Sequence to fold (210 residues):
Amino acid sequence: MLVLALDTATTDLVAGVVDGQRVLAQTCVATRAHNERLMPEIRRLLGEAGVEFADLGAIVVGCGPGPFTGLRVGMATASALGQALGIPVHGVCTHDAVAAELAGDALVVTDARRREVYWARYSGGERVAGPDVCKPADLSSPAVDVISVPGTLAAQLPIDAPSVTYQPPTPAGLVAAADFSAPPAPLVPLYLRRPDAVPPKQAPKSPALP
Fold:
């Protein structure tokens, strides 16, 4: 089955076409312009893989955790394509997709902005804690074999591991994290906190008005 895999939960725009365990085409681009670049990248990847939208059998999309603005781009795109094509859309935790590419017990950390991080811990390939959000200095974890964390945040973590790297989500990892045997559940974004944008406060009524 041909699967389109998408993730915009991090500063990496991730997309790819996967056939079983074979990745036919993929991209991972560091950008904050997810909205402008996602659909052109999808079209380019389909062309590179030699397939059409109509050939797709399913879509997998990362549901975070991630900042509101970027996360909703991938999820809205996946939902719209799924409805247009009449194919199932499976949402997965972005950190699960990252962990699928790591060996041993792992801690996956991504940038949550506001001087915070999103994290989840894995043992034997299964998530055992998180996802959650906290300040880097407040993050604690039992011993793990590997930590995946952006380089700009690595020095802020009070945790040691034999291996510290940065593994972005990949199309193969997204597909590995999806359960195609189960009916797709409604997509639920993992924001884990209130969005940055808030409704403006109502201005006080002028005493001159009746």
